[in-house]
Specification:
59% of the residues lie in helices and 8% in strands. The chain is an alpha+beta fold. Helix 1 runs parallel beside helix 3, helix 1 packs across helix 6 and helix 6 packs parallel to helix 8. The relative contact order is 0.14.
Length: 212
């Protein structure tokens, strides 16, 4: 399977950790957004939305990281532990995935990307939205080791990729006790965490430059 990605991207890293968790080998195809490689005709033919990551599995092209993650598990996973088939359990996993996409990761993008891409000043109101997102995450984890039930799921993997990016960017989430406990456990048990961390570190300088 060809996997078009940028390793420092949280959604890309989430897919890579999922693939490792189920023992699937991806064929990496690096895409440079600054060089406009995502706008080339051959890439647009695969993904007209020209986003990353994109997976091509025997001619079947799919984008949006969380869709890719659940597809890989449902097609290649040995069991349903990472993405339960039980409707209610699966619904909780999906809710957490949508929270990651629409609230937590979005709060990161809304705060940091205008500064990185457009040299915009830091917006304190958007910073508060990141804090609010972590308050929600902290509540979800109250009394729980995992984010969606009593075992590791694809929701933990997606959130690990996002929280890794927050950590590398220098966002201090130490005040959120439940998040910290989950984070320390996740670093030990999520397959591919070290590779995820190393890949994310490659973007650390861009966040350090914002503080100058």
């Amino acid at each position: 399977m060809d996997f078009y990605s940028m390793p420092h991207s949280a959604p890309c890293r989430a897919v890579m950790m999922t693939a490792k968790a189920i023992g699937v080998q991806l064929n990496p195809k690096l895409i440079s957004l600054p060089n406009g490689e995502h706008l080339k005709p051959e890439y647009l033919k695969l993904n007209p939305q020209h986003t990353i990551p994109t997976l091509v599995d025997n001619g079947f092209a799919l984008w949006e990281s969380r869709a890719i993650m659940t597809y890989l598990i449902e097609k290649y996973g040995k069991d349903d532990s990472l993405f339960p088939k039980d409707p209610q359990q699966q619904a909780v996993v999906n809710q957490r995935l949508y929270f990651d996409m629409g609230t937590l990761y979005k709060s990161f993008a809304d705060y940091y990307y205008p500064q990185i891409k457009f040299k915009a000043p830091a917006d304190p109101e958007k910073y508060k939205m990141m804090e609010k997102a972590f308050e929600f995450l902290n509540t979800f984890l109250d009394g729980q080791t995992y984010i969606a039930g009593n075992k590791l799921t694809v929701a933990d993997i997606a959130l690990v990729a996002t929280v890794t990016t927050f950590a590398v960017a220098g966002f201090d989430f130490s005040q959120y006790d439940n998040v910290n406990k989950w984070w320390e456990n996740a670093k030990k048990i999520v397959p591919g965490f070290e590779e995820n961390w190393e890949a994310c570190l490659s973007s650390k300088k861009r966040y350090e430059d914002l503080k100058k």
